[in-house]
Amino acid sequence: DAMVIQNPRYQVTQFGKPVTLSCSQTLNHNVMYWYQQKSSQAPKLLFHYYDKDFNNEADTPDNFQSRRPNTSFCFLDIRSPGLGDAAMYLCATKDRGNEKLFFGSGTQLSVL
Amino acid sequence: AQTVTQSQPEMSVQEAETVTLSCTYDTSENNYYLFWYKQPPSRQMILVIRQEAYKQQNATENRFSVNFQKAAKSFSLKISDSQLGDTAMYFCAFTASGTYKYIFGTGTRLKVLA
Question: What local confidence, expressed as pLDDT, does residue A1 receive?
Answer without folding.
Answer: 62
